[in-house]
Amino acid sequence: MPEVPQNPLEFFLQNAAAIGPPLHLILWGLVILCWGFWTLPRNGGRGLLYRFLRLFQHPAVLAVGGLTMASLQLYRLWGVNSGPAFYNMITLDSFAMYFDMLFLVAALLVVIMSYKYLDIEEEQHTEYYALILFATAGMMFMAGAIDLVSLFVSLELMSIATYVLVGFLRGKKRSNEASLKYFLLGAFSTGIILYGMSLVYGLGGSTNLNEIGRQITQLEDNSLLTLSLLMMMAGLCFKIAAVPFHMWVPDAYEGAPTPITAFMSVAVKAAAFAIFFRILFVAFEGLWELYVFPLALISMVTITLGNVAALTQNNVKRLLAYSSISHAGFVLMGVVAGTERGITASAIYLLAYTFMNLGIWAGVILLRRKDIPGERVEDFDGLFFRHPAVAVLMLVFFLSLAGIPPLAGFIAKYYVFTAVLEVAFTQGEPYSSLMVWLAVVGALNVVVSIFYYLRIVVSMFMKTEYLPVPLSFSKGLVVVLVVTGVFTLLIGVYPEPFIRLAQSVNLPLI
Amino acid sequence: MVDVTHYLVLSTIVFSIGVVGVLTRRNVIIILMSIELMLNSVNLNLVAFSDRLQDPSGQVFAVFVITVAAAEAAVGLGIIIALFRNKETVNVDEIDLMRG
User: Fold this and answer.
1) Are A86 and A15 in contact (CB under 8 A)?
2) Could you give the 3-state DSSP secondary structure of residue A90?
3) Nearest-CA residue of chain A relative to B95?
4) pTM above 0.90, yes or no
5) ipTM, interface predicted TM-score of the complex
6) Any chain B CB within 8 A of the CB of A499?
7) How far is B93 from chain A (nearest CA, A)?
8) Minimal Cα distance from A224: which residue of B?
9) How far apart, in whole angstroms, are the C-alpha atoms of residue A103 and residue A16?
10) Distance of alpha carbon B54 from alpha carbon B36, whole angstroms
11) What is the pLDDT of residues A242-269, one digit of tens each?
């Protein structure tokens, strides 16, 4: 046990580098909460100070400010491993930095695509932005957590904020229902993860992941270890929405406010994957043989079931929810591989998925107009003849999700498949045939997914009649569409820097 | 002599009651209570292991679990109240607007 420091402030400053970026978010979130109580007079003259304060009147501006500050802080710390801080609770290594970047990008895009949507839903409240910042801070702590305690607390910081966000449309029954379902299943899965964690604590004799990893390899009796591993995996599969534990996903995604659905499908999922990696590759390092079979099976079933269920959906949010389930299965393929290349593949998949999926959701938000939910496939009818630029961008996103070259989704899928096949060639039976089967199932599913993505594309480009109600454009949405479009193309055409970025992601075993 | 196995058996029983409660009960409040049972069985485990290992971090963990469980229950009850205002029911079978 390390010594208790004499001066708490000094101790904090020594360790603060490891939590710098999320700390910014929490402070800004608190500022936003206070700001909500204080309103400027409508007519305060033309003074410079008044106009300056007026600029910050909208909480979205403050949220963007907070996220920008956190990004700058992250940029300043980039590439320098902070080492374990706060008594081995948290760290800011290359793994955490990569995921932090991903969360910040996702949160920033979600905030700027939200404000018009909330006006349309008449639920413009400051808490919304504060909760997004808190959830993002939770994710960043998750990516850096190296202890079961910090892992659990940060997971809950993210989850509780997200439960509230899902139910944010208080007047809508669907939103309430989505929130309740997400909450009940989320809390249930937390209970399961925790029970697994308590058993691991008993077996490993410590709550530190590295220490657990060291102790667990020396264990003789494996039945309790297998149980705890399975429980933690089951709980984490809830969070990443893998199949047997996916029932909440379509309901929660359909009922939640659309920007929050986008946030959940991208950032919350990536955060859950981050702790999945930490737990499997640090605490359960060397137990690959134990978990590869169930995990590969889950991956295959997730990809297939997500795609097959998406085929028959008519609600776009529900269709995309099932598509997001199948994409989680693809990311899981990288985890199954369990190699360095597997981690890189999953990391690049999550990055590509962030851009292409946020682009799609921005399109769905565009269709939400006053008195028009805009959630059916038919609502996309004739989009090309009204807004050709938007329709072409949506085409790019859908093709990218389907994995068609030369777009980001293709690079992501290419890396995931090669990571799995690499294991198939280097490992002996039965692992090599398992990996080959996994790759075959994945490849077949790419074909299935093209079918339902093209349904929407057909509706956009082939149908000529459309509702003569203007789409709900806002500056933020246009920025999101352009940024996501550019990156979806860029990752596909010139993947070099992004791959190098993803290759820097590794989990150093201390 | 009561050793760690006894506590483990007890916590397993409590945890199982919680899981069965979540899966079989239809009243949201009772489901919430069952989840609370699951979390408390975890606390029992943690404290028992902490005593066995002579390591305080398990007890610290248990304190955090209690705190977070309180926050979670607060948010959960808030969600239930929000739902109850729009649709007067706490039966999960009747909360079924979204299907398919």
Assistant:
1) yes
2) strand
3) A177
4) yes
5) 0.95
6) no
7) 11
8) B8
9) 20
10) 26
11) 988 888 999 999 999 999 999 999 999 9
